[in-house]
Amino acid sequence: MRKSTIILMAFLCYVLSLTPALALNAITSAVGSSTLADETEAVEEVLAEVNAEVPNFAQNADICLLFSNVYYDEPEMLVGALRENGVSIPVWGATSSHAIMTTDGYEISENGGVSMLFLSGKTPRDLKVGVAAADIGTTRPNAVSSGKEAIEEAIAMLGDSPQIILVSSAPGMEEAIIEGIESVVGRGIPIVGGGSADNTVEGYWKQFANDQVYEHAVVIAAISTSVRIGYDFAHGYTPTEKTAYVKASSEYGRLVEELDDTPALDLYAEWINKEPRELEGMNLLGASLFSPVATHSSVRGRDYYVPGHPAIGDSDNGTMFCFKELPAATKITLMEATAEDLVLCVGDSIEEALEKGRIQAGHIGALFLVHCAGRRFAIGDKQMEDVVTEIKESIGCETPFITLFPFGEQGNNHITGNRHGNLCIAPLILSDRP
Description:
- The chain is of the alpha+beta class.
- The protein folds into two domains: 24-234 and 340-431, no CATH class; 238-336, no CATH class.
- Helices cover 29% and strands 34% of the residues.
- Strands 14, 15, 16, 17, 18, 19, 20 and 21 form an eight-stranded antiparallel β-sheet that branches. A six-stranded mixed β-sheet has the order 1-6-2-3-10-11.
- Strand 17 and strand 18 form a beta hairpin.
- It is globular, with a radius of gyration of 22 Å.
- The two termini are 32 Å apart.
- Mean pLDDT is 94; it is low at 1-22.
């Protein structure tokens, strides 16, 4: 081989190693964030970051995942600013509780805060997306129907069978929405997502789907891809020996009234060495961060627990409202964890997703991490920097990733199928190749 040819080939390999968008990757991605208070200026700052390496990457991508805090007075202007800047692709997302966590790190803003992940497939076979929404309604049957309606419309827009489904919704009917989705696609397709959130559990959350912003909807992204997919659903809590059966509950299993013939709040208070009056109202939400209850499944000899977060206590009648359905006859177990347990679980779960997806650490196209807002609060802002370290040690320092801090999480652990839980994490990893 001529010396000039060898030099040319070496140069081309060098160039390709420095410009991932020119490499033969099936999936490429870029992430950007901003804490500017003005919606338009924030979007422009995000796009400048996303397009810094590859001009017009955002405009030519296949989907935008958009997460903002609730400080923006006109969140619809976030989507509007994208359109004004030539980004006409599908948008899927939700409001996220307070913080931003991306490749750039963890940041709390008392003004605006928005992050976006753009995904691009080399060919339509590598990445296709359909995004749709439906109003949830006010009853559980309504919510089942909304999940069915949204996934049917998303699949129609996709024009193909999805390999992964992203979901977000107003909190409160997550199990019913999963039921509606699975009535269309079956139980074999992983569902990943989380409830839209605000900072104070006061109902200021929003959901984003394409050009629209909703207050009480389910938004779904149906994704078809040629690349390998890794996912997991984890929490980091350990079961204790304290268990009980739900003897009575209402509001679709969310209001737990009795545990083992004892007022539910009274027994739970005994478990965690508190007086019921100390758990009145939203005091229960904070007191249970490191000691939630969980449902239990045993599949092929493996035990798996899905936490439910006790949230609102009523010491007068002994009830406790939970963010997960706990119908009568359900066995629950008291769980426990430390902040360090919750931090370390993030890296472990991402590595589990990589292993199950057979994805090598050097071939990750992007990571979307669902990380419970309450879990973030339990860990604390200072230690959330350790979570960023866990992520980067698992996927590499420069791999684009984005985080949703939701109220309620949906995920699939490869054992029990799609589930809704609380205080959980759900990583979704797309490889950069088949």
